């Protein structure tokens, strides 16, 4: 998946309505007002749908940035 497509999917999972809100690889998800326990579940569902990977919610403890989320999914899935 292209990184820009992944970020768009992530914005959808986070229900970010402001199209101008910039999300980069270095964005710290923990400081987004939309990031909460429900959004973590939405992100897990998005990962399962797009990558066929099931990631336990307990693994999200180490996720801080978009890049660390991509690392958790697996670098081989991105181009």
Automatic annotation (TrEMBL):
Domain Carrier: 1-77
Coiled coil spans: none
SUPFAM superfamilies recorded: ACP-like
Pfam family membership, one: PP-binding
InterPro entries according to UniProt: ACP-like_sf, PP-bd_ACP
Record's protein name: Carrier domain-containing protein
Organism: marine sediment metagenome
């Amino acid at each position: 998946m292209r990184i820009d497509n992944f970020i768009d999917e992530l914005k959808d999972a986070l229900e970010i309505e402001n199209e101008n809100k910039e999300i980069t690889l270095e964005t710290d998800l923990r400081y987004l007002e939309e990031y909460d326990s429900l959004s973590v579940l939405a992100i897990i569902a998005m990962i399962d749908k797009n990558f066929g990977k099931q990631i336990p919610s307990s693994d999200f403890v180490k996720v801080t940035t978009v890049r660390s989320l991509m690392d958790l999914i697996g670098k081989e899935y991105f181009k």
